[in-house]
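Severity: low
Component: inverse-folding endpoint
Summary: output formatting inconsistent between runs
Steps to reproduce: submit the following structure tokens with default settings.
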């Protein structure tokens, strides 16, 4: 009976080991896919940055020359704005991928870059707030990001949660000052 019980336990353990091996294999595949996506986005970022610089160079060369056709200037301005938006979106997407990959330091850097390119990027400010609150344990900085998020997006669906976080953090700060 003991031998039979041991054989059943061995069978269960082997089955669990196979399931764990399969999960590890899936994680490795997911991780490789994430790394491939990050690499693709970084290549896109390099290309967009280069295009942006070329546009800046073209625009600085044209400063001394009177432009005869205002429509082409407006087109260049719109194209530059589009490139900046796309570049900001690329940094945001990199931040999301890095967050999923639990690379919070680099995710924060990417979200920061997105806000530098687009100061009205509410989602990046929210993600920065979450990263600083949950992973860096810097509630002060998180509050600053959440406040920017609410200024940009006053009708946010999660406004109540964000305001509660800010109020609790400020209450905690006040309590610490009293000690």
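Observed output (run 2 of 3):
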């Amino acid at each position: 009976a003991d031998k039979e019980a041991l054989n059943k336990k061995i069978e269960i353990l082997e089955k669990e080991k196979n399931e764990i091996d399969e999960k590890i294999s899936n994680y490795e595949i997911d991780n490789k896919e994430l790394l491939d996506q990050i690499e693709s986005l970084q290549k896109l970022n390099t290309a967009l940055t280069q295009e942006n610089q070329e546009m800046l160079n073209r625009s600085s060369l044209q400063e001394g020359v009177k432009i005869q056709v205002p429509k082409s200037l407006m087109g260049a301005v719109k194209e530059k704005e589009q490139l900046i938006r796309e570049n900001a979106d690329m940094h945001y997407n990199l931040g999301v991928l890095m967050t999923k990959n639990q690379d919070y330091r680099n995710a924060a850097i990417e979200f920061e870059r997105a806000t530098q390119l687009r100061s009205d990027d509410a989602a990046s400010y929210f993600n920065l707030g979450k990263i600083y609150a949950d992973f860096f344990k810097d509630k002060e900085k998180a509050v600053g990001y959440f406040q920017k998020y609410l200024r940009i997006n006053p009708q946010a669906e999660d406004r109540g949660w964000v305001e509660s976080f800010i109020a609790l953090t400020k209450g905690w700060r006040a309590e610490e000052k009293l000690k």
